[in-house]
Amino acid sequence: MKTYYSFALILSLSFFISSFSRIEKNTLSDHNKKTSTIAAIYNLHNDNADNVDKVSNDFFKRYSDLKKYKSDVMSLYKNRTLGSIWFDEDDINEFGTVLYEKAKKTNDLVIPYQKEIDQLFDQSAQTKLSKTDADMLLSSLYVLYTKKNNADKKRLSYDSMLKDFLNYSTIEEATASTTTEDVKVQYDQYYKLEDVLKKYKRLERSHKWKPIVTETPYKELRPDAVSSTIAQVRTRLYLMGDLQHDSKSDVYDRELMDAVMKYKVRNGFKPNYILAEEHINEMNIPLSDKMETLKLNMERCRAISAQITASDEYVLVNVPSYELIYVKNGKVALTSSVFVGAPLTKTTIFNSEIDRIVFSPYWTIPQSIVQNELKSKIASDPNYLAEKNMEMINGQVRQKPGPDNSLGLVKFMFPNQDDIYMHDTPSKTLFDFEKRTFSHGCINVKMAKELAAAMLQDYPEWTPAKIDKAMDGKAEKSFKLTKKVPIYITYFTSLVNENGEIGFFQDVYEKDKELTGENAVVTQ
């Protein structure tokens, strides 16, 4: 953390400059807060006491209601490796924010100059205090807060108490989320999202999250571009953890390219280096909205069956991220892109068990598709069915096995009332789209062949050669699994991946929007 320089300069007649670390290294490393800091070391020697008195007298003369706390306040700066206590560069740090919130919640605490202190945390306030005054006002608030909460102690050591206050356990305590149920959630994604929520609360209190202002009209940004928007994007990606440090550069360089790619991949965008307006708009979503999304998805975790934690093998398909994860032996064995039902033919959210794998499948076309899409084509073209490798069997239209079959070369079956299943597809180019809602409700899997091979590893008779032959498209072949594989079709608009990175995804079926209403109930 860097101390605010104006504060140090005002006190420079009495204090000299040196390097320091605001919080002990072990505390910082425990919370991944490694920072390089420079600050003023305050040494109150006899030969500069007059200058110190001059500075402090000026402050307490202007804030006369705090004069009786002068010695206590100044003791916080005495013989300490601290300059500005409550600031991180240009902004009030997390500890200053926690102090303010704790003081506001303390019953019967009379706070002199409440209006001035409130202005420090009001971004719309017109009157801005100097950071020297602001820091000393917050130190005065700390003394008042400590006196109120330690009224039974005859003697207070403000300096030692401040050391206890300035640690990240204070932050964790202040940001700990409360739940309506004192019940351990089985799905561990809940706690991963909770950790992100705590991080975002700290970030919100730091006031570092500022809207990215772009040029009008907006022009897509590409590598080597130079723009004030680039510098703002760089800061945003630094705050999000996609960048290790913020160089403030307005050049779209190699370092930013890597960060943009990381940002896009974790949020389900097409993996390229182009910064389109939609990406800036996503980055500008208020933190408060993102935190509400996190809370909604934490509640969704409660609805996930406890069976998922007991299963060492399962398939999870998350609709908003268009992604399938196959877990085997407790570890992620395969990840694949998917596309799902269109808004008018939504993929149903439910749990089941995969009990069959069907190779080179027939596709029996639903009557709704026959009536709405095929009937007129068949009537106008007698050769239509033959040309599309289809046939009429017992009054039903079905597509024969083959590489052009709409189900591809393999499908995965699991009981459900909506006749939803997973399958391969010959339309591989559709996976290049960011929003992948193309199907009539079934789940199209990009790596369907690889998924089948992974699921059949425990069946020695299913050699790679036998799988290839079964997928040759000549005849349908069905295999019943002796061990059923649980499948969870979910709707998470935010998830933490295996690398601990948070992703936010489109509310494609507007289920989040439905849940924001009063008395809404979260259901998967």
TrEMBL record:
The active site is at H423, C442. InterPro entries: LD-transpeptidase_YkuD-like, LD_TPept_cat_dom, Transpep_catalytic_dom. GO terms for molecular function: carboxypeptidase activity; transferase activity. Keywords: Cell shape, Cell wall biogenesis/degradation, Peptidoglycan synthesis, Transferase. Residues 313-468 form the L,D-TPase catalytic domain. Pathway: Cell wall biogenesis; peptidoglycan biosynthesis. Coiled coil: none annotated. GO terms for biological process: cell wall organization; peptidoglycan biosynthetic process; regulation of cell shape. Belongs to the YkuD family. This is L,D-transpeptidase.
